[in-house]
Design goal:
By secondary structure, the protein is mainly β. The chain is 0% helix and 53% strand.
Length: 115
């Protein structure tokens, strides 16, 4: 199955394009240890290079700028998430230079032994 989260923006040119994205998290159900960041990687494309997964980036409540986030020709960007704590987390994002692009999505994280 799909083991990533997609974030949609306006349609892009054929072949997709790279954009800057600001992301942060907030807690909808507070975890025991709120110092744990959400660790993400994202599909990125730098100039004419091939699309690849970025290195890991830690997200906290402070805005984090992600450069060269690749949006495909349908306007979708893809992110892999890892969160070491149990809790309900809201992921907030906005695309640089796109008015009214603020969006969010929530996910619940819990230890794999509880699945």
């Amino acid at each position: 199955g799909e083991d990533y989260l997609s974030f949609c923006s306006t349609r892009t040119e054929d072949g997709g394009e790279s954009r800057g994205v600001n992301m942060s998290i907030d807690y909808e159900v507070a975890p025991v240890d709120s110092s744990q960041p959400v660790v993400i990687s994202y599909k990125k494309k730098v100039k004419d290079q091939a699309v690849e997964w970025s290195s890991n980036v830690e997200l906290t409540r402070a805005n984090k700028y992600l450069p060269n986030v690749y949006f495909d020709d349908e306007g979708k960007a893809f992110f892999k998430l890892r969160y070491a704590e149990a809790g309900k987390v809201k992921l907030k994002a906005s695309v640089e230079g796109v008015d009214d692009s603020d969006g969010f999505g929530s996910f619940v994280s819990f230890p794999s032994k509880l699945k």
